[in-house]
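Could you join me in thinking about how sequence relates to backbone shape in a protein? We need material for that, and I hope you will provide a protein of your own picking. Label the sequence line and the structure token line clearly, so we can match residues to local backbone shapes. Would you write everything just below, so we can both look at the same thing?
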Amino acid sequence: MYPYLVSMKNIRNFCIIAHIDHGKSTLADRLLQTTGTISDRDLQEQTLDDMDIERERGITIKSHAIQMEYNYEGEDYILNLIDTPGHVDFSYEVSRSIASCEGALLIVDATQGIQAQTISNLYLAIENDLEIIPVMNKMDLQSAMPEEVKDQIVDLIGCDREEIISASGKTGLGVEEVLKAVIERVPAPVGDPTAPFQALIFDSVFDSYRGINAYFKVLNGEIKKGEKVKFINTDKEYFADEIGTLKLTQEPKPVIKTGDVGYIISGIKVAKEVKVGDTITTVANPAEAIQGFEDVKPMVFAGIYPVDTDEYEELRDAMEKLQLNDASLTFEPESSAALGFGFRCGFLGMLHMEIIQERLEREFDMTVITTVPNVSYHAFLTRDKETPIIVNNPIDFPDPSMIHRMEEPYIKASVITKADYVGSIMSLCIEKRGELTNQVYLTTDRVELNFNVPLAEIVFDFYDRLKSISRGYASFDYHPIGFRESQLVKMDILLNGDMVDALSALVHKDNAYELGKKICKKLRELIPRQQFAIAIQAAIGSKIISRESLSALRKDVTAKCYGGDISRKRKLLEKQKAGKKKMKQIGNVEIPPKAFLAVLKLND
């Protein structure tokens, strides 16, 4: 059976929406098995998650697509599953995957109920008019609460209780029902097969032999192998050297028609030339761009430095290779007096930053130091009050006397938790300068809290503390809502009067004293004692706001004096004191690598 022989009315494009660890990768495995797309011999757990980190953490980082063939009531159907990441950092990738589908499986863990990211991605699917098929997963577990979870799903999407499919990715329960629901309830794709070729890119992967492979869904028209195509937003033209459909491996085809999902290989070597959300059309008969494209903007910035300064070039090579696989990673060279040469990197969020760091260590054997993460601020100067200067690095902070006002990014955050933890979560949000905007009881025991909060407060330790005060029950999701004016100051850390640029941070004026005090205390614990005293200070401009002293390691120079005149002892102590003073003038303080990350764990 060939996809281009199956009519458009027998094609179904669908995605899976689920919170992290609600079992969507396992259920996807059962769908692949039931449709015969993958043999039992080739099957491995989480087949669509091909990175080690994805398997270990149980999360999907890259979205995947796979085509299944299924015979239902004597007719052949093509089912294109476009798998999506569940984590908030990858929400733009999710939005493009959803735009490529006509239906979505809403998977809810029967033991946990609805979580924050489920709701976030569900709203995206509803905005795109997708047909929602609710599936209650993990029904084989004894702790499943089918009636309670059914009530939550009915309240959320307003479906009938009978429409909810009970399933288990582990045992295969309900998988046939899911496939039947996809065929019967998800509409076939709509499009004009005779119109100019127009396709939406929803993902791209890098192949070291063949360059970038772009995955797309055809909205109108068709594409033939060898045609000259154009990527509208990047304004680049290429030849379609190979096109095909996505099974477990790529299957080349001579033509891909309206409504189907496929890949294109055209020898592209630079990741920036293929952007998720871009439109592909033919040069001979061009179509218009598809609405909704945007450049992925980094939200969190941090410095990454090699532990051994001689490994700077190896780190550059590793970053460039990672960028081929992950176009949302941005980096530029920077240097620090404390850490030497490194890179200023932009990430989609804290999870993205963790993953990049982990991949550097695993795939490239690079041991790196990551500096304090910060966000992108806007500085408006007195000479030009309308045009903002973007500040991604505390070192670029302008002279305070020239600043008219500062703005920082805000997010709308949504937390779903058990009612027992509402008080402590509210206290955490207020501590992080958050404003509570809404509080909704989803059930008698589950509450959704919405609040607006500065992004800078979230990138520190918010997520860890939220999980600990809710004993792991709270789920968290956010999206940006723009910039707001804020009282920001640059706080520097000084060691014996010398500024450590890698520990500088932009903080809110009201929090500066408390934060400076905590950092100085933490550094006092982490910096090893020297032969001379060390002053650890936090400063805003020339004003010292906090100080801790690390006393010197003292040698008892008077030990050999027993008895005799006191002036002999005093003379030895004065000599030692003068020596220590001289040592302090030429002594350098070695800062251990863990001190740079200590700022993130100030509340431990």
Remarks:
- The chain has five domains: 3-185, 198-282, 300-371, 377-486, 490-495+516-537+547-601.
- Residues 376 and 392 are 5 Å apart (CA to CA).
- The mean pLDDT is 79.
- The longest helix spans residues 566-586.
